[in-house]
Amino acid sequence: MEDVTSGDTPVIRCGGRFREQAQAHARAGRLAAALVDAGIGRGERVAVMLRNDIEFLEVSLAVAAAGANPVPVNTHWRAPEVAHVLADSGARLVIAHTEFVGTAERAIEFTAGAADLVEVAMPRELVAEAGLDRGLTRPTGRYPTLEQWIAARPEPLDHLEGALADSMGLIYTSGTTGRPKGVVRERMTPHQLITIAGGTAERMGLAPGGQMLVAGPLYHTSPNAVAVLGLRMGTNITIMPRFDAERFLRHVHTYRITQAKVVPTMLSRLLSLPPGVRDRYHVSSLTHLIHSAAPCPPAVKRAVIEWFGDAVLEFYGCTESGTVTWISASEWLAHPGSVGRPADGSAVVVADERGDSLPPGQIGRVYVRGADYWPTFRYLNTDEKSGPLPGFSSVGDTGYLDSDGYLYLTGRSSDIIIRGGVNIYPAEIENAVAGLPGVEDVAVFGIPDPGDLGEAVAAHIVPRPGAEITAEGVRRGLRGELANFKHPTTIRVVDGLPRDDSGKLRKHLLRENYTRNP
After folding, report:
1. In 3D, which of 35, 3, 33 has the Cα closest to residue 21?
2. With 361 labelled, which of 48, 247, 334, 454 sits at a CA distance of 20 to 30 A?
3. Contact predicate 67/36, CB 8 Å
4. pLDDT tens digits, residue range 19-47?
């Protein structure tokens, strides 16, 4: 079938495949009928363990249409990690690509077989682009397939009033610093749903007939929510099975992409492309190149703004409170390093451990409150308290506000390095190192000090392709940039860092190496 990209026929593309959105909606409606027939109704949880593909969006629509909660599962997790989410959420069903059937089976065994499994066959195009074994195109045959469920229901499910609100009651955190936590949201009113959808569409640059590029994993909250909203609006959607910097530019050039959501690691990899490669592709169609999820080094941000201009936007938020701050390219140039100011009635307070507000410029714990229309929440299966400030929550970030109310992040409270009784904030050092020539990525963290100072500063650095980086060169570059006590005492040049697909660093994995092998 010809790839139709204009007129009244919006499509979804992925890895050489495409599907008209009208067909995707019809398939989702039939799958929703199958779910209800199987007893998956309002408030039930369905685990979704799929790679980026067209079927991910169809499954998401179907589960929502049935009034159930889709629970996306990180496809990198092992069986015990998946089992935690299955047990915690009480998932009745797991929908998994063939690649993940074995992991899902073991996870279900850990939970005493409390969930059923539906297998999603993997198209050859997806397997090829992801660089996987071609044998994965053959289903295991042990479970009913998604196509069988859809084929068995000739008619879509009738509209269920309130099903969409029911479907948005549970969402999980990414689990960067521990086990993922289920965030149970109050049931949203129709007004809240419309306001959130409208505000998100406007800020994210979504429009009927527009061209969206999904570069991040759909099992993460932000890419998932924006893609599903774009599908409901009739935005053309191009999904990358996995991120590749040049392929990203090729998609922007070919499909005249207007909107893309990325993370800072992706931006840095785009900058690592040789100038000759970058110049092959026109990117002027982009009106919204939005990044979030992890701190962006100022050197990277400045270079990206020089390249993409006013299209560069950034927000800061969390699963509990949604998007809280926004900042445009021009605002960032006036407040370099900031992640923006609160928007839409949201609020930020920087406070000490007692919950007392700190003055501008003083570092403390960051507490946030969602927008006026954002639902309240509680954590699933836990008595964890939200913090000392009523109505505000914290996800462990540290930072400060300037006199204009712009927020600057300095890291996470768990990552603060304490050396000789002095707090050292890794983000400051990471930003300085990232500004040195040839640096693509960097992680700064604390390791045991061999003397009596408590912790020493370590830096692992990933060079850009073809760049030569040495420890002595880094130390020279930091002279005059940082006080001597902030300079890394241990510097290693490495091939990569343990980031998840949302760009968040898993520093505990780096620290463990030094704890085990001091």
Report:
1. 3
2. 454
3. no
4. 999 999 999 999 999 999 999 989 999 99
Instruction: Tell me the torsion sign for CA atoms 405, 407, 408, 414.
Output: positive
The CA-to-CA distance between both ends of the chain, in Å, stands at 59
Distance in angstroms (rounded) separating the CA atoms of residues 337 and 343: 18
Residue 95 has, within 13 A of its CA and on its CB side, a CA count of: 29
DSSP strands (E only) in 236-277: 236-239, 259-262
Strand partners, 310: none
C-alpha pair distances (Å), 268 with each of 141, 264, 472, 475: 42, 6, 23, 22
Rounded to a whole number of angstroms, the CA Rg of the chain reads 23
Whether the CB-CB separation of 96 and 219 falls below 8 Å is answered with no
pLDDT at 6 > cutoff 80? no
Rounded Cα gap, residues 348 and 393, in angstroms: 10
Amino acid at residue number 318: C
Distance CA 501, CA 132 (A): 18
* pLDDT tens, residue by residue, 59-100: 999 999 999 999 999 998 999 999 999 999 999 999 999 999
Report the C-alpha gap between 238 and 12 in whole angstroms: 6
- Residues 398-452 have pLDDT tens digits of 999 999 999 999 888 888 898 887 889 898 999 999 999 999 999 999 999 888 7
- DSSP H or E stretch at residue 225: helix 221-233
Q: For residue 4, is pLDDT > 70?
A: no
| Residue given tokens 């300079």 in the structure block | 487
Residue 191: which residues within 8 A CB-CB, separation 6 or more?
373
Instruction: Give 303-351 pLDDT, tens digit per residue.
Output: 999 999 999 999 999 888 999 999 999 999 999 999 999 999 999 999 9
* Three-state secondary-structure class, residue 19: strand
pLDDT digit string (tens) for 171-193? Answer: 888 766 567 888 999 999 999 99
User: What's the rounded Cα separation, in Å, for the pair 512 and 273?
Assistant: 32
Residues 6+ apart with CB under 8 A from 178: none
pTM here is 0.88
Distance of CA 179 to the CA centre of its chain: 16
Q: For residue 242, is it left (φ>0), alpha (ψ between -120 and 50) or beta?
A: beta
Side-chain-side CA neighbours of 480 within 13 Å: the count stands at 3
The whole-number average pLDDT for the span 488-502 is 91
Rounded distance between C-alpha atoms, residue 430 and residue 23, angstroms: 47
Q: How far is CA 177 from CA 200, 341, 381, 417, 444, in A?
A: 27, 25, 18, 16, 16
Span 259-278, average pLDDT: 94
| Residue pair 249/297 in contact by the 8 Å Cβ criterion | no
Which residue in 453, 452, 441, 450 sits closest to 505, CA to CA?
441
Distance separating alpha carbons of residues 19 and 7, to the nearest angstrom: 15
